[in-house]
């Protein structure tokens, strides 16, 4: 993954990306063949590349602040563990 100035490259395993140069080099017949489904997915992946920085920041946040289990424990401390709230939708 590309990174900003002064940042180390981040290696991400298990993610694939569309080769934009190859996509742009497709001839009209090949593009038309792929237009009905795969092409929408390819373009969506290209548009989503700008979100990788948010994914990276989220991963860093979770590394610094712990897992979701820790967050649930903090909510229990905030709201208490003796929650007797009940909903009756049959009335």
TrEMBL record:
Lineage: Bacteria, Pseudomonadati, Pseudomonadota, Gammaproteobacteria, Oceanospirillales
Name of protein: SapC family protein
Pfam families in the cross-refs: SapC
